[in-house]
Design a protein that fits this description.
The chain is mostly helical. The protein is 89% helix and 0% strand.
Length: 87
């Protein structure tokens, strides 16, 4: 497999995970063993040229995740302090 083909297949794989599961950039990066920066660059710059319809789906998931991230952060803080209380 050529390098460009490997990158293209990785980008499509990342996009399918994000669009299919609603995963965040961090979750996707952790799942595939790559950096968040790589996932973000792939989704923002490479995916629109490879698959515009899939890029729109991913953009919608990113918009939803961005709108919800303050809730996830608050929940993480709540869990952290709850764990400290039980120690």
């Amino acid at each position: 497999m050529r390098v460009n083909q490997a990158i293209s297949s990785r980008v499509i794989q990342e996009a399918e995970i994000i669009a299919g599961t609603g995963a965040t950039v961090r979750q996707t990066a952790r799942l595939l063993g790559i950096s968040k920066s790589t996932v973000h660059k792939d989704m923002e710059t490479r995916l629109p040229t490879l698959s515009p319809p899939l890029a729109k789906e991913v953009a919608a998931v990113f918009a939803r995740n961005k709108a919800e991230r303050h809730l996830r952060g608050g929940e993480a803080t709540r869990r952290r302090y709850a764990e400290k209380r039980h120690e």
